[in-house]
């Protein structure tokens, strides 16, 4: 079966760094997506990792270790607008996306 | 380019009724996927349509069905509604190439079943 785990909630301070972890067990794994979803809005694409390593995109970075079934999203210089849910999704060989339940991040002043 | 458009934004139905949700993908996108989002379960994959054909299907009962038209617009239908069907239904489009799975989501239809 498919299983994706990520923490339900996290809180961090404005200006700080936060790391959101995601572990997955999927058959035919073929890549890992991160999406951001503000309350009442559509999820928006943040990053896609298919190879091991760190991908950096401005304040956001994403890391993947295929051998460990592990990924994380790193958010630097946190801003209040970063308060949102962060969704981890594994792409399988069947070209489906399986999502975790999401991590709700609250940024406090 | 206009984004993914879903209508209606909100729906209230009663048990036993049926409902049809609509999704217009980004122009040029040929793949439309549907997801159900609930607080406890996250996003769960319903099905994907590509060129008017269902290409992938999740583990939902047959009460959930969909279709896609020649202009790539898609509809999702849920018959004999149950209380547990209350959820946010999200539609996502992508160009459709097998190697490309970056999805562009609509804002969803919030369905409440009373």
What does this structure look like?
The complex is a heterodimer of chains A (109) and B (114). Chain A is mainly β. Chain A is 0% helix and 61% strand. Chain A is built from no helices and eleven strands. Chain A has strands at residues 3-5, 9-13, 18-25, 29-37, 44-49, 53-57, 60-65, 70-75, 84-92, 97-99, 103-108. In chain A, the strands form two sheets. In chain A, strands 2, 4, 5, 9, 10 and 11 form a six-stranded mixed sheet that branches. Chain A is globular, with a radius of gyration of 13 Å. Chain B is an all-beta fold and 114 residues long. Chain B is 0% helix and 53% strand. Chain B has no helices and eleven strands. In chain B, a hairpin with a 3-residue loop joins strand 4 (31-38) and strand 5. The model of chain B has no long low-confidence stretch (mean pLDDT 92). Classes of the chains: A mainly beta (109), B mainly beta (114). Chain A binds chain B through residues 31, 33, 35, 40-45, 48, 87, 89, 91, 94-102, and chain B through 3-4, 33, 35, 40-45, 48, 56, 58, 90, 98, 101-108.
Helix-strand layout with pairing:
The complex is a heterodimer of chains A (109) and B (114).
Chain A: E1 3-5, E2 9-13, E3 18-25, E4 29-37, E5 44-49, E6 53-57, E7 60-65, E8 70-75, E9 84-92, E10 97-99, E11 103-108
Chain B: E1 5-7, E2 10-13, E3 19-24, E4 31-38, E5 42-50, E6 53-57, E7 64-68, E8 74-78, E9 87-94, E10 104-105, E11 109-113
Parallel strand pairs in B: 2-11
Antiparallel strand pairs in B: 1-3, 3-8, 4-5, 4-9, 5-6, 7-8, 9-10, 9-11
Brief sketch in words of this structure:
The complex is a heterodimer of chains A (109) and B (114). With 109 residues, chain A is mostly beta strands.
Stretches of chain B where pLDDT falls below 50 for ≥5 residues? none
SS element count, helices of chain B: 0
Q: What is the approximate shape of chain A?
A: globular
Mean pLDDT of chain A: 94
Biggest interface pair, residues each?
A-B, 22 and 23 residues
The count of strands of chain A amounts to 11
Beta-strand residue percentage of chain A: over 45%
């Amino acid at each position: 079966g498919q299983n994706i785990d990520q923490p339900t909630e996290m809180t961090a301070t404005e200006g700080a760094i936060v790391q959101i972890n995601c572990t997955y067990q999927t058959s035919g794994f073929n890549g890992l997506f991160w999406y951001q979803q503000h309350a009442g809005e559509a999820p928006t694409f943040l990053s896609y990792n298919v190879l091991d390593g760190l991908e950096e995109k401005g304040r956001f970075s994403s890391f993947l270790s295929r051998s460990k079934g592990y990924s994380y999203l790193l958010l630097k210089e946190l801003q209040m607008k970063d308060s949102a849910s962060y969704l981890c999704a594994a792409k399988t060989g069947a070209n489906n996306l399986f999502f975790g339940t999401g991590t709700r991040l609250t940024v406090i002043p | 380019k206009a984004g993914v458009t879903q209508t209606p934004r909100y729906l209230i139905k009663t048990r036993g009724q049926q409902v049809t949700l609509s999704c217009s993908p980004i122009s040029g996108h040929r793949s439309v996927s549907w997801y159900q989002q609930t607080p406890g379960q996250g996003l769960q994959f319903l099905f994907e349509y590509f060129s008017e054909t269902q290409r992938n299907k999740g583990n939902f009962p047959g009460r959930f069905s969909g279709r896609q038209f020649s202009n790539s617009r898609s509809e999702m239908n849920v018959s004999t509604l149950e209380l547990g069907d209350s959820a946010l239904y999200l539609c996502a489009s992508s160009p459709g190439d097998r190697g490309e799975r970056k999805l562009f989501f609509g804002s969803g239809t919030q369905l409440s079943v009373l």
